[in-house]
Amino acid sequence: MKKYFFLSIFLFQLLLTQACVPDGNVTKLQFMPDMADGPVAKVLRSYLDPPENSVAMNAIFYPESPEEAEQVLESPYYNQRHLEEKLQDGKKLYGDYCTPCHGKLGKGDGTITDKYPRPPDITNDYYKEKKDGFFYYRIVFGGDLMPSYGHAISNIERWKIVLYIRKLQTLD
Ligand code: HEC
Question: Which of 121, 153, 120 is nearest to 136 (CA)?
Fold first, then answer.
């Protein structure tokens, strides 16, 4: 009787090892299906491929030059919806971060320019020709003399400032 008892324990253990040792060539014998194989877990695991050229919302992308930024970065504000609100936000942000050097209208006549090198007029024809990505890049990285603001101004705020600079460029 004892013999059969040990034999059955042995067979049971054999069954368990078969169930647990993964081997690419053998169909796994599943002793106790658990949550890992449940239908919910499977749905979560097999997501669709993201659409082409899409970037995760919190992804950080650093173009290597203003030229590259002009090529690859596009303002999310291609439509005119809520334009006034975005411009108001842009005006406020520009006022907080850029006015001290660039002046209220972007002419380069900010209040600290007697102590700091005077920036160019960013509303002139040269800067009107520049694409949005150029201004975005400058906000993130600054310039030779201009400080960078990538750490302080969020992605969406940068585009709002760019939008406002575009508005300033239409004023004269
Ligand atoms: C502390 C002063 C200062 C502040 C603040 C500042 N800038 Fe500048 N900026 C400069 C100076 C000086 C230059 C010219 C030299 C250089 O490119 O570094 C400049 C240049 C620029 C240029 C032209 C760059 C080029 O390559 O021709 C742009 C565009 C610009 N700034 C945008 C901004 C924006 C937008 C803000 C606000 C987020 C800002 N700046 C804040 C000082 C400043």
Answer: 153
